[in-house]
């Protein structure tokens, strides 16, 4: 294996360190060296020796919101494995003080050694205490006595003034960096404002895994409240914990109602993900029932995410019913995290008696307040000072007033950044201000569709309001004309207006379909024809709001 000779100033010894070794690296002060693991060595064109490392963080480097999750006092000697640290991991070899011998956390933990252990001359206690978003917390306490050095003739020049000289990577441009961080698909370093939800879901799955039982958690909340992001983060952390033998290994699969052509395809997909078998929906349902309802040979627990559950609605409700029912079977070893937009879906699809037998664990995600949205944007931007505070506040207020949808918030910020970038090319570079945000908001809400809604007839506008009301009631973003018609009539009644006739309703519907505001099922089903919106509910709400 590859190694490199380092000379310790402190102990005046030299020794060879190798890839994978843990090392102490000069910190801000002598008492608190940084801790890292060596991943690679190389020499650059200027014969400068570099090391690539995985950093471990001291508690002071961990964001407050994550520290809170530990729910305990942390000693300054503890360090944390930081998977996504934003630090430069390329350092000059001279800054390495010495190596410490550490055996891996999982190894120690498995052996149940929680008392200080003797490793060579180093006293190292390390135990896996907890894992939370992206952080595996290890407890180290080490004495700084080095291992006996292996005397060797130094091949490299004696380090002169040891200095931590990492050429910090400057982003090509601050605005570009900000834009990337704000992208909805960028995985944020942390999920501020969702610590409790994270913890509850984590604990739910963890406890079932440990007990070897099954269960279903029903997670609801309007779009953009971070449900999907939080659940995925939980799974990531649990997979990490399983790798460290902190929780039993499990099989993870996911389906998404939005991506299925037909609700019954859920069975087909689940079976295929689990076993690789491709069969018809009916056959798949039978095989899955058999798998989850009969005690089988020893198998791992399955954790199944069912995202966009609302869309698995069928007339007989059997898909949803099975998803809620399987985990309650004694031998299922099935943990389902069902994510939906509607809160009372289980009640509506099942008789209450059944609903209570299933004993669902529930969690609801509240829409973000403007303060939370502000915090989410700021934390995404982290230390990139690309936005004026007022600008962030404006976006947050605007979105919180509409829907509290974090995705919408990020979209506006990203667009504002682009507008600012464009302006900066022409004149002096600047950061994103209120004016850029205002422009982005106007642009986002001034699509031809929005103008079409604003210029639509009164009854067409009421029809759109009726659609929103119906979607909200049903929790499904699709309805029949008849269902919308009911809403339409009650809206008219509230306004003291005359209700349109059935044929008038059909005419309204086809006009809205013709200008592509609606997607209308092409068939002769008349009032049973299904309709969907071709633009987001937010846009409709925005357009219909009288300013
Ligand atoms: N608390 C948060 N911190 C950072 N980003 C967030 C947070 N909540 C949501 N987001 C981001 O907003 C977007 C929408 O979140 P998502 O989890 O898909 O919402 P939902 O599933 O509730 O519709 C994603 O890009 C996600 O990363
Ligand atoms: Mg989602």
Automatic annotation (TrEMBL):
Q: Where is the BAH domain?
A: 15-141
Q: Does the keyword Flavoprotein apply?
A: no
Predominant subcellular localization, coarse grouping: nucleus
In terms of PROSITE patterns, this protein maps to: BAH (PS51038)
Q: Which domain of life is it from?
A: Eukaryota
* A Pfam family hit: Cdc6-ORC-like_ATPase_lid
The processes (GO biological process) annotated in the record are: DNA replication initiation; mitotic DNA replication checkpoint signaling
Q: Which UniProt keywords are given for this protein, alphabetically ordered?
A: ATP-binding, DNA replication, DNA-binding, Magnesium, Metal-binding, Nucleotide-binding, Nucleus
Where does this protein reside within or beyond the cell?
Answer: Nucleus
Q: Which GO terms describe its cellular component?
A: nuclear origin of replication recognition complex
Q: In the UniProt record, does the keyword NAD occur?
A: no
- PANTHER family assigned to the protein according to its UniProt record, in alphabetical order: CELL DIVISION CONTROL PROTEIN 6-RELATED, ORIGIN RECOGNITION COMPLEX SUBUNIT 1
Instruction: Outline what the protein does.
Output: Component of the origin recognition complex (ORC) that binds origins of replication. DNA-binding is ATP-dependent, however specific DNA sequences that define origins of replication have not been identified so far. ORC is required to assemble the pre-replication complex necessary to initiate DNA replication.
The record's note on quaternary structure and interaction partners says: Component of ORC, a complex composed of at least 6 subunits: ORC1, ORC2, ORC3, ORC4, ORC5 and ORC6. ORC is regulated in a cell-cycle dependent manner. It is sequentially assembled at the exit from anaphase of mitosis and disassembled as cells enter S phase. Interacts with CDC6 and KAT7/HBO1. Interacts with LRWD1 predominantly during the G1 phase and with less affinity during mitosis, when phosphorylated. ORC is composed of six subunits.
The name this protein goes by in its record: Origin recognition complex subunit 1
């Amino acid at each position: 294996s590859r190694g490199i000779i380092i000379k310790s100033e402190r102990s005046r010894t030299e020794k060879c360190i190798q890839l994978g070794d843990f090392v102490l690296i000069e910190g801000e002060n002598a008492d608190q060296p940084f801790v890292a693991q060596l991943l690679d060595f190389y020499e650059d064109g200027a014969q400068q020796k570099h090391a690539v490392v995985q950093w471990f963080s001291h508690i002071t480097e961990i964001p407050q919101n994550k520290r809170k999750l530990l729910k305990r006092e942390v000693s300054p000697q503890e360090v944390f494995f930081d998977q996504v640290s934003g630090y430069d991991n390329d350092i000059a070899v001279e800054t390495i003080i010495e190596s410490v011998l550490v055996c891996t956390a999982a190894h120690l933990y498995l052996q149940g050694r929680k008392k200080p252990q003797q490793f060579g001359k180093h006293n190292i206690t390390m135990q896996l205490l907890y894992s939370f978003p992206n952080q595996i917390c290890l407890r180290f306490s080490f004495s700084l006595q080095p291992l006996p050095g292996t005397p060797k003739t130094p091949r490299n020049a004696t380090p002169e003034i040891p200095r931590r000289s990492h050429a910090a990577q400057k982003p090509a441009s601050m605005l570009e960096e900000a834009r990337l961080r704000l992208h909805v698909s960028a995985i944020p370093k942390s999920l501020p404002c969702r610590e409790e939800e994270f913890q509850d879901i984590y604990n739910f799955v963890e406890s079932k895994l440990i007990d070897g039982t099954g269960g279903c958690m029903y997670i609801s909340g309007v779009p953009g409240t971070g449900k999907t992001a939080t659940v995925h983060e939980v799974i990531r952390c649990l997979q990490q914990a399983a790798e460290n033998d902190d929780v039993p290994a499990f099989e993870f699969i996911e389906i998404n109602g939005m991506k299925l052509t037909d609700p019954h395809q859920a069975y087909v997909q689940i079976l295929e993900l689990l076993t690789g078998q491709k069969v018809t929906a009916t056959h798949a349902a039978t095989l899955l029932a058999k798998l989850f309802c009969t005690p089988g040979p020893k198998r791992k627990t399955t954790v199944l995410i069912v995202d966009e559950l609302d869309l698995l609605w069928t007339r007989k409700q059997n898909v949803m019913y099975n998803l809620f029912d399987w985990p309650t079977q004694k031998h299922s070893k099935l943990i389902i995290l069902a994510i939906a937009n509607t809160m009372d879906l289980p009640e509506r699809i099942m008789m209450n008696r059944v609903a209570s037998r299933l004993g669902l664990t529930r969690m609801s995600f509240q829409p973000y307040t403007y303060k939370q949205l502000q915090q989410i944007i700021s934390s995404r931007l982290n230390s990139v000072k690309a936005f004026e505070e007022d600008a962030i506040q404006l976006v947050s207020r605007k979105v919180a007033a509409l829907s509290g949808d974090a995705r919408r918030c990020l979209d506006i910020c990203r667009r504002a950044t682009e507008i600012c970038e464009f302006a900066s090319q022409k004149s002096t570079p600047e950061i994103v201000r209120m004016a850029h945000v205002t422009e982005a908001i106007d642009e986002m809400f001034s699509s031809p569709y929005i103008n079409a809604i604003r210029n639509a007839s009164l009854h067409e506008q009421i029809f759109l309001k009726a659609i929103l009301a119906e979607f909200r009631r049903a929790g499904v973003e699709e309805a029949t004309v008849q269902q919308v018609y009911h809403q339409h009539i009650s809206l008219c009644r509230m306004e003291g207006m005359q209700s349109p006739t059935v044929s008038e309703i059909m005419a309204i519907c086809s006009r809205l379909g013709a200008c592509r505001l609606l997607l209308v099922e092409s068939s002769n089903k008349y009032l049973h024809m299904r309709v969907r919106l071709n633009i987001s509910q937010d846009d409709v709400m925005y357009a219909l709001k009288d300013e």
